[in-house]
Amino acid sequence: MGGGVSHIDSFDPKPQAPQEIRGTLSAISTALAGVQFTEVMPQLARIADELCLVRSFSHDSNDHLLSQVYTLSGRKVTAAQLFSEPNIG
């Protein structure tokens, strides 16, 4: 979603990545074996075994807004179609 926290700063930390990539937040273990969140998500980390965590969204667009629409709606749109219909709600 627009304005949201990045995956590396929330649900998909990269503790083994170089410092300039992994950011300033530390990774913490969760209730789900082998899965880590960042240190700002301790309550969610405790119930991670009750969550459905999806880390497989992808797109082939370099346009952030078009790829956001695709990720949220499952439809590939052109810039001309972007605001012709809602993609959330």
TrEMBL record:
InterPro entries in the record: DUF1501 (IPR010869)
One Pfam family recorded for the sequence: DUF1501
The protein's name: Uncharacterized protein
UniProt superkingdom: Bacteria
